[in-house]
Amino acid sequence: MSSSDTDKDRYGRIRQINLPRRRFERLVGRALAGLPPEFQARLENVAVLIEDEPPDDMPDTMGLYEGVPLIHRSSDDVMMPDQITLFKGPIERVCSTEKEIESEVRLTVLHEVGHYFGLDESQLE
Predict the structure, then answer these.
(1) Which of the residues 1, 73, 85, 106 has the least number of beta carbons within 10 Å of its own beta carbon?
(2) Is the pLDDT of residue 5 over 60?
(3) What's the whole-model pTM score?
């Protein structure tokens, strides 16, 4: 059986990968650890969460940054922790292998960290 056969069910449909939560958490940790040191050093007061699904009004969202981007802060600001949330379900649904999930997690982490640093959607593309 080839590896492409293992990614499909007996009817030829692509299987959805459902990673155990701990494995998904490790992929997120690896993506964060893979950020360049100069970016890691500036990620302060940021909670990174994993949820199974996004809110109902955002069904296909893979990640969400909530907070005040770094470039919009002043030294006088008293800030609540920023939050980056990754949504496991949507990420798994667009992927057919664990390697694809790892890649999508990395891209989603980079995307949301980019928002933390003040990049908008067009800059992130």
Answers:
(1) 1
(2) no
(3) 0.85
CA distances to 11, 38, 44, 64, 110 from 71, in Å: 51, 16, 13, 18, 17
How far is 49 from 97, CA to CA, in rounded Å? 22
